[in-house]
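Entry: Dynamin-type G domain-containing protein
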Amino acid sequence: MATMESLIGLVNKIQRACTVLGDHGGQGMSLWEALPSVSVVGGQSSGKSSVLESIVGRDFLPRGSGIVTRRPLVLQLHKTQSGAEYAEFLHTPKRRFTDFAAVRKEISDETDRITGKTKQISNIPIHLSIYSPNVVNLTLIDLPGLTKVAVEGQSDSIVEDIENMVRSYVEKPNCIILAITPANQDIATSDAIKLAREVDPSGERTFGVLTKLDLMDKGTNATEVLEGRAYRLQHPWVGIVNRSQADINKNVDMIVARRKEREYFETSPDYGHLASKMGSEYLAKLLSQHLELVIRQRIPSIISMINKTIDELNAELDRIGRPVAADGGAQLYMILELCRAFDRVFKEHLDGGRPGGDRIYGVFDHQLPAALKKLPFDRHLSLKNVQKVVTEADGYQPHLIAPEQGYRRLIDGSITYFKGPAEASVDAVHFVLKELVRKSIAETEELKRFPSLQNDIATAANEALERFREESRKTVVRLVEMESSYLTVDFFRKLHAAPEKKPEKNGNPPGPNNDHFHDTSLARIGSNVSAYIAMVSDTLKNTIPKAVVYCQVREAKRSLLTHFYAQVGRKEKERLSAMLDEDPQLMEKRTQIAKRLELYKAARDEIDAVAWK
């Protein structure tokens, strides 16, 4: 079995590592919170600071009237085999304090840095580690003293704010509560005991400490409390005799103070029979023994939590990606794999696995037919324009039977209008494909860590889409021009020409429109051309989508990054590294996850090794 010092020392080590990595809060329970620690609770001027100093054996905490502890102080005691005592703060990790008066000043300065030189409080903790052969391995959290009234310079909510802060620590199931109460105060009115009872009604986590026993009125004593008759706890009460103000003013050494405390209990007629279980040294050992017991009880749940967190961290590393290899071949392979991941997402958009591809169908089913309906054939095939075109086509020699040249010109002019909707369909699909490229890049999880590669893929994909658009535009324009290059003769052969009506003989001279044709003939020509154009429109309404899909959508699915692959294969290693230049924030996030993962794995291995020796 591991020794008490090794097990608690390991917990201290893990807690400190958690603190350095910032793994001591947030959603869910962190490893820091899963490991037991001792929170010191008491009213203002209850003697909390003196108890802590007695346990440490050093005078290092700020003193004064009113609220002195204005930020939580996480105090980790590390027992060393030998050597000088020293202290380290988390916020100044490279500075080692051997002068404990300087430690006191640093606590005050660091408190003021957050709260200012006011009487306000902050829930941002100060982390202090003390290394000494004269301490037991222990983590203690000194919390602001509970108060009932706000004094000048404090907000009206200070009483509630302090209580809420203290509660946030002591209500955690792994927190051991050290409830400090002055002996010259009625135990029934103790703020610390009242709060402890609320968060730990069974008393399993609460240790009661009576301070200032030497300041009680003559003829009175606290034996009923210390013996558990006045207020029973599951753990024994411990009496403490702190240094007097005169001793503090004289800078009486804490070692001397401990000796005087032992002498007080050993020679006291009231507490002599309890002397072996009184005093700060006994309290430190009692807490350390209980802490070891709690740690042993919690080891299975701690290991389970560690394993779960390791799995979560590994999954998170897989999600954001492992570190980039330094080898050029490995980098090229990684780039190609990332491109394929993007390509898969892009194809899912087109094929319906993700939204967006349906917008291409919308171009063909709604936008193209609507554009075809809006073409100005009514104006082009009006009687006036039909007469103008046919007359100009005849030239000086009017047609003899049917105005074939007029027909051809009217058809050619009408078919030309189809180029607008055809090219608009090409552009609309091009816009959809570009938007799908953008969305696919954003949705490819593997790419999120490489902003430079994202830009390179976007540029290459958009260049390819431009080439596809140009080819598609040429193709649809050819389709339109093919309709002009060879007319469907059978359509006109099947038309049955209606007999022309002769003008009535009413004595009126023929009007100007009757020089070559009358209105009925012009209307028939316009109607025939309109019918032919409707047939062409139906044809193009089917063939334009085929051409666009073949030239743009199909090519985008087949060869969107083909040119890019060829270019990447010819790049030097330095350029490949630049393409895999990651987002600095993501690199920092991966580094932090990797450190946390290393911490949790080491914690698991060390707990296993130490706990079950």
